[in-house]
Target: Phosphoribosyltransferase
Amino acid sequence: MKKAVNDGVWSGSWVARRLGVELDGDDTLTGLLGLALRRNPKRAHLLVSNVLGKHVPQSPSVVYGHGLALGRRVRELLGDDAARQAVVLGYAETATGLGHSVADGLALAPYLHSTRRPVPGVARAGGFEESHSHATSHLLLPEDPALLAGSGPLVLVDDEFSTGNTVLNTIRDLHARYPRDHYVVVALVDMRSPADAGRLDAFAEELGARMDLVTVASGTVRLPGGVLEKGQALVAEYDTPPGARGGDTHDCAARARSSRTGPHPAHMRVDLGWPQGLPDGARHGFTPEHRARLEAVLPAMATRIAEALPEGARRVHVLGFEELMYTPLRLADELERLRPDAEIRFSTTTRSPVLAVDDPGYAIRTRLVFPAHDDPADGPGDRYAYNVAGAGSDAVVAVVDSAADTPALHAPDGLLARLAEHTPHVLLTVVPSYVPGAAEAPERPAMLPEPLRGPAFSSYAPDEVGWLLQDLSDVTLEAPTEEREEAIQSGGAHYAESLPVEYQPSEEYQRLFHSALDASAARIATAVGVVTETVLAERSPRPVLVSLARAGTPVGVLMRRWAQHRHGLDLPHYAVSIVRGRGIDANALRWLAAHHDPADVVFVDGWTGKGAITRELTAAVEEFEKAEGVSGFDPEIAVLADPGSCVRTYGTREDFLIPSACLNSTVSGLISRTVLRADLVGPHDYHGAKFYRELAGADVSVAFLDAVAARFTEVGDAVDAQVKELLAADRTPTWEGWAAVERISEEYGIHDVNLVKPGVGETTRVLLRRVPWKILARAGAGADLDHVRLLAGQRGVPVEEVADLPYTCVGLIHPKYTRGATGADGKAVAV
Model:
């Protein structure tokens, strides 16, 4: 194995002498590592790998060989059967090429590396933080959402294992989404301190998983007290003076300054003939099949580079680009085979700011500085190429992806110009940036739209709720109630394909609404507090509230207000569509998964009846996870009232009047119920809804919220007492409501549970939207049913009192349109 030393001097001695840093461990450590100083307030020193191909130019066969050898050791550890079930995960930006090489050595498993480049239209499958890094946020963006969803071993690859924080953060994030029982951590060097060494074992025991560690060498870095301050002082002393941008602290700066006024340097562009559809790396996943395709075309692509090199070129530097390490490395490795007479070196550009000192005992001798040229998501900034200046290369081959082939790359102070100051020949080759699904589905939009918000859509304030819906306000969707009922029951149309005509309440009915609100505001506020505190205690300390539009939306807003009132939390809140028999809006789930951790999502609804939506959501989430490979969504709904005993998270199980059930859009932000119709909602669209702006004069949406929220302070003690009791109770759903509905359906000759709507809220919906047959009311039910009796009287619907009804009331939809119905008495045969 080659040792990277300068004139017999260890490339860490400069830092070691000045900071008192000691490198203890295997004899091979000084050959593998040098030391430099970070321009980073979080950590003073930088372990500089001599065999990684990032900061220190190295023979590509040495760089690739180390990764291959590690991968073969992992395969030997796992065995072929487990290796076929494994996934390899590398870290951006430094270890993307190493992880790829490990995956090649393992041979049987797909590979994915984290990225700091968001890609429109690609949902996040996870993310984590690297606390000591200059740029900390990592994204996981696999094209195949199922890539990380398996249960086989996960192989995590980094260049160094120093504190273990990055690995622990990764495993913690992924284990919550995709639990598995075996993790393998791979690194060139294990440099953990004794204090950190036991953390991995303890964490494995906590998870109940096996964890193995595979490295080339191990040791520790001994740091004296005050090392961070000393390091920062040295950086300040030796850093490049202002105005010397473009070079290192010595001979490159003057040429960099003068070049700005000189002619634009020329370079040669080399077309590799890159195969269509072959990923340029593993930002979105790289399978063994991709690897086989690349191996087949590598010789021809490297030959094109070799033929473009100037005659007599003996020192050739192949320079990769930040996360794009593997493709340039393989091209360099193949070029080394084709040109045994030449000295081929490989390294890549980087985001990491490191001090350059021209001393044989320092790992970073020179530094080229140039502007970022790939329009990074975190904005413009400097980028760096280390140890390229002054290397005496006859030619530099810069390899970038097409996202980075921008005017900034070709600018007078761009990377190509910087390189041209230090070599007579610059070659540029551009690899097409792989965009998942672009070739297969060009009609798919780049990304899903952001949520609609008031006042443009709904009468709620913009921060109260974001609607993951499309606005269909300009489409005529309303149909007479009897026509809708006939179409729905005959199977000619689904209830979500049209809208009922919005009920316009009489003055008497509006008085009933306000009277009911006055009477029940404290009761509702208590239920809001109880369900919110239960969610915070059991589901997530910072939940993402996702209401099932539209009945769930006022409840979600109230829960958000409670969290703000009681805990100062500003919780995200969205409304999504779920349709019985059609499932939840999968595009809304995709948006949520891309912007939030699915494990934090809490679905919210107003109440349960017989539990049909509860079952619908469970099935829909399961189907979504199988199709998308995105796990973590908990399908259990949090509701204000659970009279059907269908869920564990609720404010109360009493069946009482929730005034928001008394009205339609005018208590729900002026939004219609949701619409799902094939001619209006495409496969990549959100479900639709209408904003009834014309009903603003009758809108009581905000008044309802304010009336309930005004009672939050007075119910605080009651909420605390009830939450304490609930958290200690057995809240296992009994599904009593479903059993009662089945019994009523048979007893009344309906034979269709979808035509039986239990509870005050569902009964009110029957009277407002459907064709009711009769209302069953619990004997002795009082003011909670005043509005039901009024609506029933207006529509000529009989109210029948029943002694042992498990709900306060039950609405029966008229079954006269059901196939086999016998007539107006509503009796129907089973179908």
About this structure: The chain has 24 helices and 32 strands.
